[in-house]
Amino acid sequence: MTRSKIAAFLALAFIVLFCFAGVTATTTVKDTTVAIEMGMPKLLFSLSSAPLLLIPLALVAAVAAFIAFIQDEKNVGMLFSFVATVAFGLFMVFFSMEQKNSALYTPIAEALELAEVKFKKRDVKLITPGFNIVTYLTLVSIALSCVIGHGDFSKERRHILKRDLLPYAYIGPHLFFFIIFFMTPAIYGVYAAFTKWDLFTEPVFTGLENFKTLFFDSTNTYYKQLRNGLWNTIKFVLMCVPFCIIVPLSLALALNARPKGNKIFQALYYLPSLMSISTVTLTWRYVFNTQYGIVNKFLGVDANFFMPPYTWVMLVIVTVWWCTGSTMVIYQSALASVPQDQYEAASVDGAGTIQKFFNVTLPNMTYPLMYTLVTSVVAQFNIYGQPDILVGFSNAEANSVLLQYIYENSVKKQVAGMSSAMAVILGLCIMVVSFIQMRMMVKNQQD
User: Fold this and answer.
1) Which of 26, 58, 62, 225 keeps 20 to 30 A from 323, CA to CA?
2) Which of 373, 377, 367, 375 is nearest to 441 (CA)?
3) Helix-strand-coil split of the chain, %, nearest 5
4) Neighbour-count burial for 227-265, b at 16+ CB within 10 Å, e otherwise
5) CB–CB of 127/104 below 8 Å?
C-alpha cells in the first residue's frame, strides 16, 4: 500500500472516529460530584459554543484530504490534513478552557437529579470539560495522515510543491471564512428549523412540528406572520426588481453616449451603493418627512409616505436609489463590449435608435441582464433594513417583510426554532426563483 493510500485511510479514520468521539464533564454541587459523557455529533449540533465552529472546518478539510490522497495529490492532501489537524486541535484547546458550557449543563442537570441533589442553575458554578480516549485518537489519526502523506520537500521538488499549493494560498482565506461564517451557520440554521430552541439552552429536536404550525395551524400567530411577511416580500420584489434593471440600464445608456461631465455623473450615480443601509434609510427618512421633507415641499403635496399606499413607493425609491450604482457599472462594461460594426451594419440597413437598441444592444447584453436579474431578485427577497428602519411594524404590519418577523422572533422573543423554519421557507423560495432564472439564462445562451 502506498503512502498516499495510507494517508487517505487515516483521513477517513478521522471522520469515522469522530462519530464515536465524545466529551466528558464533571461538576460538584453541594459536595456531590457527577460526571457525564456526550457524543461529539450530538455536541456539534448543540449550537452552544463558539469553538464548535472549528469542527465543520476540520471535517471539510479531512474530506478534501481524503479525496486528494486517493488521487495521489500528496501535497494538496498534506495541506488539507494539516488544516484539519490545526482546526480540531484548536477546538479541543478552546473547548477545554470553557468553564460553563450550556450544552453540558442539560446532561449535568439530569445526572444531579438522578443523584437526588436539589439545586438551582446558579448552584452549578463550574463544569470541567474533558475528552474521551477516542477524541484523542481522532486527532492523532488526522495528524498521522499529514505526516505520512507529506510530499517530497527536496530542493529540486520545491517548485512542484509551490505549483500545487499556490492556488490554495489565494482561495484559502475565502474558503476559511466561507465555511466558518456561511456554510456552517447555514447547516446549523437548517437543523434549528427542526428544533424548539430559545438560543440559550440546548435545542430539542421536534421534527416537522414547526413547519406544521407554519403551514396548517391557522390560529397560530406564526402562521399569520409567515403569510403576511412572505406576501409582502413577494410584492416588494415584483415592484422593485423591474426598476432595479430599467433605471441602471437607462443611466448606462446615457453615460455610454459620453456626454460632457459623464465621469462626474458616473461617480455620483455610483456613490449611493458605497453607503450602508442605515445611512441611506435614515437620510431618506428625512427626505420623506411629512412636515419638513423636501419631497412634499418640492412636489407641493401633503402625502404621508409612511402610511399605505405610499409606503411601497417610498421603499422602492430608496432601494432603487441605493442599488442602481453597482448594476449600472455592470451594464456600462457590457455596452463597451458591444461590437461597433454591428451598429454600423444596422445603420446601413436604415435602423433607427430604438431598432438598434432592441436588435443590437439587448442581444449582446443577454448574460449581464440575466445575471443582474438573478442577483436583484435574490437581494430584494432578502430585504430587511429599509422597511425595518422606515416603517417597522406600524400600519398594522402592512409593510412588514418576512425577515423582520424572523429577526423579531429569533433575537427579541428567543423563538429561534420557529424563526429558522421561516428562514428555510424563504431560502427555498429564493432557490426556486433563482433556479428558474438560471434555467432561462442557460436556455438563452444555447439559443
Assistant:
1) 225
2) 367
3) 75, 5, 20
4) ebbbebbbebbebbbebbbebbbebbbebbeeeeeeeee
5) yes
* 298, three cell numbers: 418640492
In single-letter form, the type of residue at position 282 comes to: L
Element (H, E) at 406: helix 402-407
pLDDT digits (tens, 9 = 90+) for 130-148: 899 999 999 999 999 988 8
Q: Which 3 state secondary structure label does DSSP give 338?
A: coil
Of 132, 118, 135, the closest CA to residue 35 belongs to 132
C-alpha neighbours within 13 Å on the C-beta side of residue 268:
7
Q: Any idea what DSSP says for residue 101?
A: -
**CA 315 – CA 276 distance, rounded (Å):** 16
Q: Which three cell numbers stand for residue 50?
A: 463558539
* Amino acid symbol at 149: G
Whole-angstrom distance, CA of residue 176 vs CA of residue 189: 19
Q: Give the rounded percent of residues in the chain with a pLDDT score beyond 70.
A: 96
227-271 tens-digit pLDDT = 999 999 999 999 999 999 999 999 999 998 888 888 899 999 999
Distance CA 444, CA 447 (A): 5
The whole-model pTM stands at 0.80
Cell readout for 288 is: 420623506
Asked which of 38-47, 231-240, 281-290, 330-339 is least confident by mean pLDDT, the reply is 38-47
Task: Give the strand pairing for 22-29 and 32-39.
Answer: antiparallel
Q: How far apart are CA 395 and CA 401, in angstroms?
A: 13
Helices (H), 35-132: 40-44, 54-70, 74-97, 102-114
Q: Which residue pairs from 356-361 have beta carbons closer than 8 angstroms and sit at least 24 positions apart in sequence? A: 357/253, 361/253, 361/335
- Give the C-alpha separation, 12 to 262, whole Å: 59
C-alpha to C-alpha distance for 187 and 202, rounded to whole angstroms: 16
CB 45 within 8 Å of CB 188 = yes
Q: Are 204 and 415 contacting, i.e. CB atoms less than 8 angstroms apart? A: no
CA–CA distance, 5 with 149 (Å, rounded to integer)? 9
Cell numbers for 172: 484559502
Q: How far is CA 204 from the centre of its chain?
A: 24
Comparing CA positions, the residue from 331, 318, 321 lying closest to residue 357 is: 331
Q: Encode pLDDT of 8-34 as tens digits.
A: 999 999 999 999 999 888 888 877 888
